[in-house]
Design brief:
152 residues, alpha+beta, 434 Repressor (Amino-terminal Domain), three-stranded antiparallel β-sheet, 6 helices, 5 strands, elongated, binds zinc ion
Amino acid sequence: MECEICGVEGAGYVVLVEGAKLTVCHDCSGAGKLLRAPQPARDPAIQSARAGKAEMEVVDGYGSIIADARKKMGLPLEVLAERINEKHSFLERVEHEKTLPDAKLAHKLEKELGIKLLQEVSSGTAVDVKDRQGKGMTLGDILEIQMKKKKD
Ligand SMILES: [Zn+2]
């Protein structure tokens, strides 16, 4: 979209100038009465999800994958935790799927145990909402919390 005043690319403002609605750039948005400003940038996570960009997601059943691999290698939890520089209690929570490992931790575990924990998902398509509890916040969770807050 070109600015209807100066012709620059990237006009996002709509202003009313002498009764005419013009789509203009930021610099020209002061020329008249501002009717519409560009949409504020959304949460980058949501934005990339909307764009359907491939993202890495921790696979379902990651806890048992980690635990199985670890046991096969005969590694006590404490030893594995030490090797990847994490707290043993934290790793335990991950194995019990009470905590979702972040990508960094998942990578370390993948390397250490020779397992696959991350899969590429293109979010924006069907998002698996079942059994989401304890696996990080979803938009639905956030909305629910906000609703609850309003009620209080
Ligand atoms: Zn302009």
